[in-house]
Design goal:
Strand 16 and strand 17 form a beta hairpin. The protein has 579 residues and is α/β, with parallel strands linked by helices. Strands 18, 19, 20, 22, 23 and 24 form a six-stranded antiparallel sheet that branches. Strands 6-5-7-8-9 form a five-stranded parallel sheet. It has a four-stranded mixed sheet with strand order 4-3-13-12, sandwiched between helices. The chain is globular, with a radius of gyration of 24 Å. The protein is built from 17 helices and 29 strands.
Length: 579
Amino acid sequence: MATAAAAPSWPAMSIARAHELLTAPGAPFEMEEVVIRGIPTRTWKNAPPTLKACFLVGRMHGSRDFLVYENDRVTFEGFARATIALAHRLRADGVGKGDRVAVVMRNLPEWPVAFYAAAIVGAIVTPLNAWWTGEELEYGLTDSGAKVLIVDAERLARLHEHLANCPDLQRIYVARAADEIAHPKIARLEGVVGPVNGWASLPDAPLPEVEIGPEDDATIFYTSGTTGKPKGALGTHRNIVSNIMASGISGARSFLRRGEMPPAPDPTGPQKATLLSVPFFHATGCHAVMNPSLVAGAKLVLMRKFEAEAAMQLIEAEKITGAGGVPTIAWQLLEHPNRHKYDLSSLETVSYGGAPSAPELVRRIRETWPKSWPGNGWGMTETSATFTHHMAEDYMARPDSCGPAVPVCDLKVVDPATGEELPRGSVGELWGKGPNIVKGYWNKPEATAETFVDGWVKTGDLARLDDEGFCYIIDRAKDMLIRGGENIYCIEVENCLYDHPAIMDAAVVGIPHKTLGEEPGAIVTLKPGTSASEDELRAHVAAHLAAFKVPVRVLISHETLPRNANGKIMKRDLKALFA
């Protein structure tokens, strides 16, 4: 009598072997070596070579929905026609290769149109942080020397008094302005592309004829500016399109590690859909979500502002398959008292980055949505988003890791003082190398020389690598506290706080001390319906960590902790609470 075959034990295959199979000659994720700026570099052989190529692949998805925002619904073809119309207008405005076109707006359907219209005419797209003040936006426009600005009405109002200080700016297109604006440089974007829901009816037109190559300059994304003035990271087309492949290989690797063959893409199957909870103006939202979604034919559902119950309504109505962004968003969905009222069974992945997450969150995602796998990754503006990623069983087995480097990338941990590579398991500064490392900082040769060395980027993160290459971010080097000569890694104390059942969010910062230099202080928010006192939380840390790591004060905030566009808690703002 035949017996059923036993399921293979996990992992059925090593990380190295899985990557070898997935990147072999003839495989979808095949690699090849290319010399980039004099440095031999592994690259994805089958990635679209440029953003223009991504645009053309995306257009092939035709009548499927691409962008959904409130009452606006845009197909891939409608998006393509609006993009081409705006591209021709930019050419008429004199925009050519290397000119900077700034995009400053919240997540609207017009944002991807502005981005791709500039990209396919060879301009350097310069997204600026829509949360910035008028003065900060002025800095971005003048530092980049932007020739054209595409902006929403809200940001234009913030910028209006600063426009006189932006001499390079020749033309401004404003989206969703309620009234006509009497200014010689300003025109309504609707005058070029019409209303959003009419984009599919725009005349068909050929793309502007512009030769674009993989190593051409494509974007300037400004660093988050947590210290000093933001620096513009100058990315190439190859830097950005590398995310197209990086976003898919982690899932394929999970199947092999499970002892299964990755399923072949099915263009006739149900459409994937992502609830976008991070801004387009950040490398994650643009490179790791928008561009892969365009190429894969996935739907992007946008929210004016994240609100948990509204998000659940959208997940149900739009059959969202992927959600997340930062851990706090996942917690808000899990802990919401009305979660049971909504059908969230379409979720397949709940992924996030930009902040540490508690191991409990990883377990809760899988328990709450059995069809869904948790995912996590690490990257930065200088790595054009995704550098490491893992999900499914790998993430559940190593919930405190951000995963291994994607196969075209290399990681090493070095002594910050000497630059010498350290043995596996040692803590040091994390350096990364790959086809997604940007060229440098816009017009800042000294800062470029300090950060980029022979193809490697010095991340400023303290990390360690285990024997299989899984990366563990220990802390930002500049955030590490030194209390009386003892190093305190903030993330270690934060993870301990996250282990307390009442903690939803936690941040540890340095409190100045006359004798010790600084001491740790914590700011936390609690999950709905829970309670905890300062003494209780300090005792919780003391039960798990050395006494010198215990926060001397714990402040309980009734508001969400402030984050930058990358999802990282803005610790500089929190330090003032201890003054």
